[in-house]
Write a structure and sequence with these properties.
The chain has 428 residues and is α/β, with parallel strands linked by helices. It has helices at 12-19, 30-41, 63-74, 82-103, 117-139, 156-165, 182-192, 215-225, 262-265, 280-287, 295-298, 319-328, 330-353, 377-389, 417-425, and strands at residues 110-114, 147-150, 168-171, 197-203, 228-232, 257-260, 273-277, 357-359, 367-372, 397-400, 403-409. The strands form two sheets. The protein has a seven-stranded mixed sheet with strand order 1-7-6-5-4-2-3, sandwiched between helices. The chain has a four-stranded antiparallel sheet with strand order 8-9-11-10. Helix 3 (63-74) crosses helix 12. It is globular and about 65 Å long. The structure holds pyridoxal-5'-phosphate (PLP). Pyridoxal-5'-phosphate is lined by residues 57, 116-118, 155, 157, 203, 207, 232, 234-235, 261, 273.
């Protein structure tokens, strides 16, 4: 495998100067437009699959998935309905079924591939509220306001979803290990006095620290209180692919819905989030768009992917993931996840051993967050910028409980122990 160049952004004016006007009356022609892209635009985009791109959550697609993304793009396949895309939808559903079975959901579980965890979380919560609304309308107990409960470690997309839906967010404190627990959830909901709580979001792998909430006890509270249990595993649930890791997610099998992004730790290209429902019929009721011109597709029992999330027209974005899974087999996925975990353990060990670094949290998964003793925020920023300027790595600062620290998110099996040592050496 050839290491991609890391590359780096340039300012808007630098790019404009280098590229010149690109939208012209007579067109640049294919060769020139491609030259500009290859020589000027693409090098101003950081390669998220570089082995030392360890920030945010990287993307590390297999060659098979990347190549198949080209096929999907070139095939004019419409992935929104069974009528138009039956073969593609069948393949996507195979991949969704594999994920649902890893999580221990029943055979009828299913859903759709959406662009990312943000849309996946929002779509799941829209379904959850729709279910609650139908029920409470029937019971004659519709609340004045709806609410979703989660922690402030939950991904920012959860609060964003609550805002888009105009529902309240009940913040539940995490325990000393940073986890949402059933006990704290119960107390927070009871103390809020809110009569419109309809869903709870647990995170299976927080973005900043990679922490897995206590899914089992949270599931129990949801069951006791009749609440929708959504698991945001956009990053972390990928580890279900490694049999040794499954025990860590005990309780996920009780989820009403979950998301996991193949474009994060399942080696597929952007943009691909698997949104899976225990009972897809509920999502269908919430999301099916109705119009005369759509009657031909909505008036039958076909599996139309657009019926399970926000959005109508859709690219069959699950296909690159499906193709790669079909090519390599699930054992290769287990091995690739295990390799990233091995490098993560090495990173944690190095951080423990070096006297100038300290772990913030023993990694649950493959995020290693740590502090460099004695550094102020400006020093983290300068160090990070220098790594990028020198084409070495993208490792940006983050904050945890008000403190500036940094983190490695390791999802790329091409990232090696040497890459980690190289970066840590630059902090000495
Ligand atoms: C736990 C979690 N949930 C949701 C998201 C949002 O996913 P996306 O960026 O694909 O919309 C992320 C992104 O990093 C995440 O880590």
């Amino acid at each position: 495998m050839i290491e991609p160049p890391l590359d780096a952004p340039r300012s808007e004016s630098e790019i404009a100067k280098a590229v010149g006007p690109t939208i012209t009356a007579s067109g640049l022609g294919g060769r020139e437009a491609l030259r500009l892209f290859g020589e000027e635009l693409a090098p101003s985009c950081i390669s998220t699959d570089h082995p030392r791109y360890l920030s945010f959550i990287p993307c590390a697609p297999t060659e098979a998935s990347t190549l198949f993304d080209l096929v999907v793009g070139a095939s004019s396949i419409y992935g929104g309905t069974w009528l138009e895309g039956a073969g593609a939808v069948h393949a996507e559903n195979e991949a969704l079924r594999w994920l649902a079975s890893l999580a221990g959901l029943p055979d009828q579980a299913g859903g759709v591939f959406v662009p990312g965890g943000t849309i996946g979380n929002l779509s799941a919560l829209v379904t959850a509220r729709d279910v609650a609304r139908r029920q409470r309308r029937q019971d004659g107990t519709l609340p004045a306001r709806w609410a979703v409960a989660g922690t402030d470690h939950a991904h920012s997309s959860i609060v964003a979803a609550a805002e888009v839906m105009d529902v309240d967010f009940i913040g539940v404190p995490v325990n000393e290990q940073g986890r949402l627990t059933g006990r704290a959830l119960q107390v927070a909901i009871d103390e809020s006095g809110h009569d419109g709580v309809f869903a709870v979001v647990a995170t299976a792998g927080t973005t900043n620290l990679g922490i897995i909430d206590e899914l089992e006890s949270v599931a129990q509270v949801c069951q006791d209180k009749g609440l929708w249990f959504h698991v945001d595993g956009a990053y972390g649930l990928a580890a279900l692919a490694a049999p040794r890791m499954r025990g860590r997610f005990a309780g996920v099998e009780r989820a009403d819905s979950f998301v996991v992004d193949p474009h994060k730790w399942l080696f597929a290209p952007f943009d691909c989030c698997a949104l899976v429902y225990r009972d897809p019929a509920q999502a269908r009721m919430a999301h099916t768009q109705r119009a005369g011109y759509l009657d031909v597709v909505t008036g039958n029992a076909d599996h139309n992917p657009s019926d399970y999330a926000i959005g109508l027209t859709r690219r069959a974005r699950g296909l690159p993931f499906w193709f790669s899974l079909a090519v390599h087999g699930t054992e290769a996925y287990a091995a690739a996840i295990e390799r990233t975990l091995e490098v993560c353990r090495f990173a944690a060990q190095q951080i423990r051993e070096r006297e100038y670094t300290e772990l913030l949290h023993e990694p649950d998964l493959s995020v290693v967050a740590f502090r460099r003793h004695g550094w102020r925020p400006e020093q983290y920023a300068a160090w990070s910028q220098q790594l990028l300027d020198e084409g070495i790595a993208l490792v940006v600062p983050t904050t945890h409980q008000g403190e500036t620290v940094t983190r490695f998110a390791i999802v790329n099996p091409q990232t090696t122990e040497n890459d980690i040592s190289l970066i840590l050496d630059t902090m000495s």
